[in-house]
Each structure stands twice: as C-alpha cells, then as structure tokens.
Write a structure and sequence with these properties.
This protein is mainly α. The protein starts with a helix and ends with a helix. The structure holds zinc ion.
C-alpha cells in the first residue's frame, strides 16, 4: 500500500516538475508575449514590461493568480499520479503529464478571453 502511494507521489511530482520547466513556454505559446524558456530569459522580454500595448494576462495576473493557475495544474497532476490505482504507473504519468497542456490551455484561453487579450 505504501509502495503504491510512494510511486503515485513520484509520478505526480515528476509531472509537476515538467510543468515547472515548461510553464513559461506555454505562456509564450498561448499569448505570443515574448516569454522564453524557464532556463532562458523567462519573462524578461514579455510584453507585460512594455509601457504601452497589450499585456500578457498570464504574466500580469500577479503572484496569487499564478499560485491559483499553477496550483490547479499541479494538484490535478498529483491526484492523477496517486489515485487511479488500477492504472499502471506509466498510464498515470502520461495522464498527469497531459494535464498540464490541457488544463494550462483551458486556463490560458479563458484568461485571454476574459481580459480581451486577442481583441
Ligand atoms: Zn508572458
């Protein structure tokens, strides 16, 4: 039982680590805002730093907003890593990894739509 839980935590944390690494890339993909890889310039060239023009809604949402957006994805990944116990760890990892682009795109598109970023 504890072995299964440990494997689930490792699976969920692995997926969360990938989310951490690719978080800024998804921002750049959705908003074309100038964000770069987490290991690159990150948000240094994002339009959120421009005095005029549109500001990337993802980067301008603030720390609490980031916490909520990121937290929803990571919690979903941990749940998917731990709870579908009949699934193999590979299937749980694939599903937890897929949660990031799926939920991240839903969050990003919703945020962009609400703020009128593409208008
Ligand atoms: Zn951005």
């Amino acid at each position: 039982m504890y072995r299964q839980l440990l494997i689930g935590i490792i699976v969920g944390c692995t997926a969360a680590a990938v989310t951490c690494a690719l978080y800024m890339d998804l921002c750049s993909l959705i908003f074309r805002c100038g964000c770069d890889h987490m290991w690159g310039a990150r948000d240094a060239h994002c339009n959120v730093h421009s005095l005029t023009g549109k500001h990337c809604p993802w980067c301008s949402i603030g720390q609490a907003g980031h916490g909520i957006l990121f937290g929803v994805v990571v919690v979903a990944q941990l749940v998917l890593g731990i709870f579908p116990r009949r699934w193999s760890w590979g299937k749980r990892l694939a599903t937890a990894l897929a949660a990031f682009p799926v939920l991240g795109c839903v969050e990003g598109v919703t945020l962009g739509w609400i703020t009128g970023y593409w208008n």
